[in-house]
């Protein structure tokens, strides 16, 4: 085996290892990189067979590397998330047609040993060159329109396309013309693969690199051991040169190690309820970091809310006192009431903000759940006076470990929203159901109002999101549902929304067993 063949075989092993590690880690753009690395390995194997003068076998395997072009288009789309809808299917169909042509009738492309151009070689070469040029021009335009990290990622894809074209079709074209430089293919294609891997694996946060570094250290350690073992065996058996054996041993170990890791993690997922594997550990670190950052943000919001509450409450009290004086002096009653309504709204917003940013400690105790819910419904209806719509109750008597005040506030908020939704509907209906289920307790609040606007659904439980504007009859603060979900989660439960088949809205509280 000559030096070029050893490098080609090693490069193919490394490409397979990259594909397997990408599959294992599940990084962004992973599907495209897996395909790209797999077909890159296939292309290198074709050039390896060509370098060994295997004749017909090399002639049939080598064209399969054309799938590399389609895989690159797929990787670019996966990483950048933008491409014309027709581009990926066109790339795959064209590359597959060329690959199958070479596999079935290689003489249409070139002569024996990939020497001399066949009848279809130059037309395909012109089309491939034009497609590569068009892709590069497109990437250049995208690079110019980006900044910072995104610009570097797109620049990496541009470089990968250039090196991939040089190491693939470029070197094969030279070989057909009689200039054999196939050994250089490893260098060009390795650079191409590295650049695509960078574009795909470049993490959004430095802490996310932990999983990648761990996987690289594991593979490198195993590869070093295999390199030492094969070098020792080569020296003992008298096979020369020893360093070539060490290179092949190290490269061959990489896909073996990646496959071992995939197998171990698959078995671990099956056998253990809480598997400790790299992708899940990385995900856990990211979630923990996000929670810590969120807690820090909430603490800052809490401090701000306290300052805002202190600064606003006093002026609101003065405004109410002045409104009372205006009323006594004979001012227009409607104007005075408008002032009071706006002060009440501002006070309610301040209170909600304080509750959201600095929730009080939970006070859990066993209580009659149906009584907590019924009292909350009564409080909600009182705010609407005598004209309050009826609420149909179906409450199963249960004693449950809850924070009665917090759960009552949740029910008040949900029922109030439902009453507002049906207030102007002639046959408005609000129904509240409480029942025991397998996972715990379900508390459902359903109405037949207009329902939640479609645009709000993805952000329904986020703070400061409301479907009722400031000019609405009952303006919202945008914190009610966010507070409700927070309190339910502090009970270990969930709060979800669904749209009934008959229309309206249904909010479901699930409280788990104590």
From TrEMBL:
Catalytic activity: ATP + protein L-histidine = ADP + protein N-phospho-L-histidine
EC class (word): transferase
CDD domains assigned to the protein according to its UniProt record, in alphabetical order: HATPase (cd00075), HisKA (cd00082)
Annotated EC: 2.7.13.3
Domain spans labelled Histidine kinase: 307-514
Molecular function terms, GO-annotated: kinase activity
Keywords: ATP-binding, Kinase, Membrane, Nucleotide-binding, Phosphoprotein, Transferase, Transmembrane, Transmembrane helix, Two-component regulatory system
Transmembrane parts of this sequence: 29-50, 86-109, 121-143, 155-177, 183-203, 215-237
Pfam families, alphabetized: HATPase_c, HisKA
Name listed for the protein in its UniProt record: histidine kinase
Organism from which the protein derives: Stigmatella ashevillensis
